[in-house]
Design a protein that fits this description.
The chain contains two helices and eight strands. It is of the alpha+beta class. The strands form three sheets. A four-stranded mixed sheet has the order 6-5-4-8, with no helix packed on it.
Length: 183
Amino acid sequence: MKRSSMPIIVIIVLIVLAGGAYALFHKSPKASTGTKSTTSSTQSTAPAVNNAVLITKTASGIGQYLADPSGKALYTFGGDSSGVSNCTGSCLADWPAYQDKGSTTGLPAGVSTITRTDNGQIQYTYMGKPLYYFVSDSQGKVTGNGDDNFSVAKPSTASSSQSSSGSTTNSSSSNSSNYSNPY
């Protein structure tokens, strides 16, 4: 009787070991990003952004925010108007513009560019708001939120079916109603 129960015990042990190995080595997509993330079932979130210009990241205390493809946080300036950057001169020393170094055609929905009037450089915008870096941030660290009238850029809660013309503009028409910025 002991011999006939031995194969069953071996099978059970193998199943338990396989399940344990799966649980130990299986990583969810969130865990593989290398970023701490917190989610709350009561917190509403905008659709994730993930393209060649912007990605959505999540940080404790901030929630979802926009970053460049390398993961560095992007900010908007409260002194800007839609399609116009008012951060010039010494402001750009601490808050460098997120500049387009490639083609401005075929940009993702919500993303456009402006030609800066102070230096002629092409700067990315999201929902009409020019985007900036903060020089004191490091990879994965968001330290400039609320400083000098700058706020971390947030993904839009507007319909993701919006499209971008992809054209370079310097318009001052208001487009901020589609931009979600709780600060």
